[in-house]
Design brief:
Elements lengths: L7 H4 L17 H7 L10 E4 L5 E4 L65 E4 L2 E5 L5 E5 L5 E6 L7 H10 L9 E3 L10 E5 L4 H12 L4 E5 L10 E7 L2 E8 L2 H13 L10 E6 L4 E2 L5 E2 L4 E9 L4 H7 L9 E4 L8 H13 L4 E5 L8 E8 L2 H7 L6 E2 L5 E2 L1 E13 H6 L1 H13 L3 E9 L2 E8 L2 H16 L1 E2 L1 E2 L2 E2 L10 H13 L2 E5 L4 E5 L5 H13 L6 E4 L2 H19 L4 E4 L4 E4 L3 H11 L4 H12 L15 E3 L5 E3 H9 L1 H4 L10 H4 L7 H7 L2 H18 L4 E3 L8 E3 L11 E2 L6 E2 L12 H7 L1 H13 L2 E3 L6 E3 L6 E3 L6 E3 L5 E2 L2 H12 L13
Antiparallel strand pairs: 1-2, 3-4, 4-5, 6-8, 6-9, 7-8, 10-18, 10-21, 11-15, 11-16, 12-15, 13-14, 17-18, 19-20, 21-23, 22-23, 24-28, 25-26, 27-28, 29-31, 30-31, 32-33, 34-35, 36-37, 38-39, 40-41, 41-42
């Protein structure tokens, strides 16, 4: 028997007859060569590449794809720390370096899989309108403001120009620009090739524009504004319609045609288990036959639209399971495009890489719905934003079908797991609201022991930020108040009987109550129906605790010791917020344990605070006891140096680090009686603190840095505006006003006043009357401005060594000399003024 003739349409991937074709659909080497490089094969049901790069397919033999020539080229993403995350990668994955990457479907519920990869935190934050970089232990590495930069758009460049050429051109004009700061726009037509250049030089763009104008060439530069709003948006969702086709079902009866159309419309009939779109019935007008009956030689037609491209006539016929509904004839349309998901994915990935380097590209082997969905992570946010210009772009591989790209904004908030479960009902209600705003939210319970992470993603940045604020509000709780006053007692600062009663009330009512010892607040969590009950129970419990605080009435000698640094020794021995020193009544109140009372009494009587604390730590602080409150750790947190804290004590210690650090910011372990040398890294703090507390630690470090550098940065003078700006030196010229990007008010960066078109000198001359009166009053009250930060200081008693509470500098009150430490200041006062106290007012320098 002669071999069956090969179907030439099948060889080109365009045969519409499927199994009903009378020609051979066997694939041979010759037929594969005949297809050529430009032909695409029908989409497979499931396909992926194995570790050698060969194609593995499941489904119809129609879906066999020739081996891709790129299978011999090593995958460059496989060498990155995150590995290649694209399962259907066409490039070679060598067995010795092969790493399985998780395929990500944006619709997959991530509670059912491993938590999504999260990039390493570079500890850079947008605070008060500044981009702040922190080092490993939380100290400020760098502060960048939008006004520190300028950006230029260079046009008139050759179509084939590279970034290296632009860098060399700028170097010829005297600008040393890093190649990473140059981006060639590839989305415009060749005659409009342009380069975007950003430099840390406020005048760069204007100077470059002026120099290019002097050259009188086609190349020109235009300054561009700097966007001060920064967000983490390196993730892009990409999708495109799956290959589809239409089917025309021919019927000889209008009744049958209408019945079948209704069943498809209602979902009674499906194709391969999937509902399809069905149009109305169309047919010709009937004509009279010779026998007098109505006869219609033109069939009634039902059109099925958006049917998956790999569906055959038999699949459609099998979907119509009632025999008397079967059509006379089924006619398919051509497929909308013939490329497989993998081939389209490779083309899309190539288009994305024209805008910047990808960290990963995820294309699931299968996807639900009518669209193929992929996820791309860019290394740089600017590249992700640029890539979104491909949205609604027609590409030839889809037969002019369009891509859809969405830039994804995301936040992840970490809260304590007990707080999450207490507030779960409210969080779930908020998630329903977010879903209506097209935000995706996911919960990861106990990703870190004791903490639950909630992730919110969406295309609208404002909606994502609002969701973040709601989560912060939920995690904070509601302050318990008796009327307008917060409910609090000093006994709550320890884990004594008062706090144990609060925990008993918490268990009895089935609520959650959290304490914040630094703010002296109790926070209540839902259900709010029991809010008043909790207040009544705690108010009753406090009546029995009022007598538990111990008082030490100070003798004149003891009082003198306290005001000369003795109270600081008490705090050093007991910890902060345990004892209260009332100067008026000359009384020391200790709200802690009996042991803490004995320690305070010993210090009052002259004992050394460090020795007292060391003895207490060595004799009474057992393993597992908190070094802050000396009690058994509640919600224990163990640090890298093997010390165990109460979670609350650890959070309070971290939040107060900025105010307790003697020099630069650091969070130091308080174990071994405060002698532990461990300084916690930001990575360790991030793992052990909730998101809100960790961010507050970073902000406190930044605020402490601003206080120490008042000559460099200043807060905007508008009330309730926390943005900062960089100070400039005073000048007799009219300096350009700085317009705050937050409140849009203008302020002079030299004298920090609002004087519009006046110079600083002119403004001060006009306002001199008020200043003179103020200076006279300050002199009368013995108030001076700190030379470094201009903070007004009043001296009422004590020696002439003053430490500024703002910038932490040391000052000689007599001559207003500034020093970096107290020792240098005392040495100066002894040498220059013969001592450190008792200098008459008329000898003090003003």
């Amino acid at each position: 028997m002669a071999p069956q003739k090969l179907c030439t349409y099948f060889a080109k991937g365009r045969c519409m007859k499927g199994n009903h074709c009378t020609f051979s659909h066997e694939r041979t080497i010759d037929s594969e060569q005949h297809v050529g490089a430009g032909a695409y094969t029908p989409r497979t049901t499931i396909e992926h590449f194995d570790t050698t790069g060969a194609v593995v397919t499941h489904g119809s033999p129609l879906a066999q794809i020739p081996k891709d020539s790129r299978a011999t080229i090593p995958c460059k993403f496989l060498r990155t720390p995150s590995g290649c995350r694209n399962d259907p990668c066409p490039y070679l994955h060598r067995p010795d370096g092969y790493k399985v990457g998780r395929t990500a479907d944006p619709e997959v519920n991530e509670n059912e899989v491993t938590q999504e990869k999260e990039g390493e935190d570079d500890f850079t934050r947008d605070l008060s309108g500044a981009l702040v970089s922190f080092n490993d232990i939380g100290q400020i590495r760098r502060v960048s403001l939008p006004t520190d930069f300028s950006r230029a758009c260079i046009t008139g460049l050759p179509p084939t120009i590279q970034s290296e050429t632009v860098v060399q051109m700028l170097l010829g004009f005297g600008f040393n620009i890093d190649i990473e700061c140059v981006r060639i726009s590839r989305s415009t037509a060749p005659p409009k090739t342009k380069a975007l250049v950003k430099a840390e030089n406020p005048s760069f763009a204007k100077e470059l524009s002026d120099k290019l104008k002097q050259q009188k060439t086609e190349v020109s530069a235009v300054p561009l504004p700097i966007d001060s709003r920064r967000s983490n948006c390196r993730k892009v969702y990409i999708s495109w319609h799956k290959a589809t086709r239409s089917f025309w079902l021919k019927f000889g009866s209008s009744d049958i045609a209408n019945r079948v159309a209704q069943k498809f419309a209602k979902g009674h009939y499906k194709v391969l288990g999937q509902s399809v779109t069905c149009s109305g019935v169309k047919g010709g007008a009937p004509r009279g036959a010779r026998d007098g009956t109505l006869h219609n030689p033109v069939a009634w037609t039902v059109t099925l639209c958006d049917v998956p491209g790999d569906v055959t006539n038999k699949d459609v016929q099998d979907g119509i399971h009632t025999p008397y509904d079967r059509p006379r004839h089924i006619e398919p349309s051509p497929v909308s495009y013939y490329a497989s998901d993998t081939q389209v994915g490779l083309e899309v990935r190539s288009l994305l890489e024209e805008h910047g380097r990808l960290e990963s590209f995820d294309l699931p082997p299968t996807s639900r719905g009518r669209r193929v969905k992929a996820v791309a992570w860019f290394e740089d946010e600017a590249d992700a934003i640029s890539a979104c210009s491909l949205n609604n772009k027609q590409i030839s591989i889809l037969q002019q079908g369009k891509l859809t790209l969405t830039l994804v904004q995301s936040v992840k908030v970490k809260i304590q797991t007990p707080v999450y479960f207490a507030s779960k009902s409210r969080i779930e209600e908020e998630m329903k609201t977010w879903a209506g705003q097209h935000l995706t939210s996911r919960v990861y319970v106990n990703t870190v022991p004791g903490f639950t992470a909630i992730k919110v993603e969406g295309a609208n940045a404002n909606d994502v930020v609002r969701a973040r604020k709601v989560l912060d509000e939920i995690s904070q709780g509601v302050i318990l108040r008796d009327g307008e006053n917060p409910i609090w007692a000093s006994a709550f600062k320890t884990n004594g009987s008062a706090y144990k009663k609060v925990k008993a009330i918490e268990k009895e009512l089935g609520v959650l109550i959290r304490r914040d010892k630094s703010k002296c607040h109790l926070y209540f969590y839902v259900p709010f129906a029991k809010y008043q009950q909790a207040i009544a129970h705690i108010r009753e419990a406090l009546k029995d605790e009022s007598s538990l605080s111990s008082h030490i009435n100070l003798s004149p000698e003891q009082f003198s010791r306290m005001i000369r640094g003795g109270f600081k020794s008490v705090e050093q021995a007991l910890g902060r917020n345990v004892a209260v020193f009332d100067v008026i009544s000359k009384r020391l109140t200790v709200g802690g344990t009996r042991q803490q009372y004995d320690m305070a009494l010993a210090v009052v009587n002259g004992a050394d605070a460090v020795e007292i604390r060391d003895v207490a730590a060595s004799h009474s602080l057992t393993e597992g006891d908190c070094p802050i409150c000396f009690c058994e750790a509640e919600n224990p947190v163990q640090t890298s140096c093997k010390h165990t804290y109460c979670l609350e004590c650890f959070e309070d210690s971290c939040k107060s680090a900025a105010s307790t650090s003697k020099n630069d910011f650091q969070v130091k372990c308080q174990g071994n009686g405060g002698t532990c040398s461990t300084i916690f890294t930001l990575q360790e703090l991030k793992e052990r603190l909730s998101s809100s507390v960790f961010e507050s630690v970073l902000r406190s470090s930044f605020e402490e840095y601003l206080q120490r550098h008042p000559e460099a940065f200043h807060y905007c003078s508008t009330p309730d505006c926390d943005y900062v700006y960089r100070c400039t030196a005073a000048s007799n010229l009219r300096s350009p006003a700085y317009r705050c990007p937050n409140c849009l008010e203008s302020v002079c960066t030299s004298c920090h006043a609002r004087h519009d078109n006046l110079t600083c000198a002119q403004y001060k001359d006009i306002a001199s009357g008020g200043y003179e009166a103020l200076e006279q009053l300050k002199k009368k009250l013995n108030i001076k401005d700190y030379p470094k930060c201009t903070t007004p200081i009043e001296k009422t008693d004590g020696c002439n060594h003053i430490t500024c509470g703002g910038c932490k500098a040391h000052l000689c009150w007599v001559c207003m000399a500034v020093f970096n430490d107290g020792t240098s200041c005392y040495a100066h006062m002894s040498k220059a003024h013969g001592g450190h106290g008792g200098v008459p007012l008329n000898l003090m320098g003003w």
